[in-house]
Amino acid sequence: MWRRCWRQRVLAAACLGAALLLLCAAPRTLSPVFGNRALGSSWLGGERRSPLQKLYDLDQDPRSTLAEVHRQRRDLLSSACSRHTRRQRLLQPEDLRHVLVDDAHGLLYCYVPKVACTNWKRVLLALSGQTRGDPRAIPAHEAHAPGRLPSLADFSPAEINRRLRAYLAFLFVREPFERLASAYRNKLAR
């Protein structure tokens, strides 16, 4: 019985690995065939490329600065958000559950699962004085325990607005395929 499960897991891991390898390697191997342009521009016929294809152009000028890349990403994010959200929508408490508050240091941390959120929760627990010693020693189940860290949803609207205006708000993002592979390793490959 366990041999069959083991074989299925190995087969699933091999298929996922092959798919990830194909996704990572295919654009690099195909781009010379299309006349030294990014796959998207020739593949779609002309310059009808999506903003993401333009942003992640494989033949991007190496002299472009990191600041320019970040500006383009912010612009892309802003335009996508403006197309898909209502302008006057009021925030609801469920919108604020993923924003953790550290009043002592004036921090708002919007956590995204599978993007180092466990480690950042450990750091916030250590900063708030709830633990002693090395934050890495805090078990994951303790870091994720409800009520250990206050969320922005726990406050009144006036207190929420005050914190949003005065505190440093931050979040971390991750490349989507890397995040997917990490979730697979953590949840399915064990």
Radius of gyration from the alpha-carbon trace, in angstroms: 22 Å
Decide which structural class fits the backbone.
Answer: mainly alpha
Order of SSEs, N→C? HHHHEEHHHEH
Task: Give the % helix.
Answer: 40-55%
What is the helix tally? 8
Indicate the overall shape.
Answer: globular
Tally of individual domains: 2
Main sheet? Answer: 3 strands, mixed
Question: What would you say this structure looks like, in words?
Answer:
Pfam families: Sulfotransfer_2. This protein is mainly alpha-helical. It has two domains: 83 residues, no CATH class; 95 residues, no CATH class. It has a three-stranded mixed β-sheet, with helices on both faces. The longest helix is centred in the N-terminal third of the chain and has 29 residues. The chain is globular and about 45 Å long. The two termini are 17 Å apart. About 11% of the residues have low confidence.
How would you summarize what this structure contains?
Its EC number is 2.8.2.-. The chain is mainly alpha-helical.
Key structural traits:
190 residues, mainly alpha, 2 domains, 8 helices, 3 strands, 50% helix, chondroitin 4-sulfotransferase activity, carbohydrate metabolism, signal-anchor
Write the layout of secondary structure elements.
Blueprint: H1 2-30, H2 39-43, H3 51-55, H4 66-84, E1 99-102, E2 107-110, H5 117-127, H6 140-143, H7 157-166, E3 168-170, H8 176-187
Parallel strand pairs: 2-3
Antiparallel strand pairs: 1-2
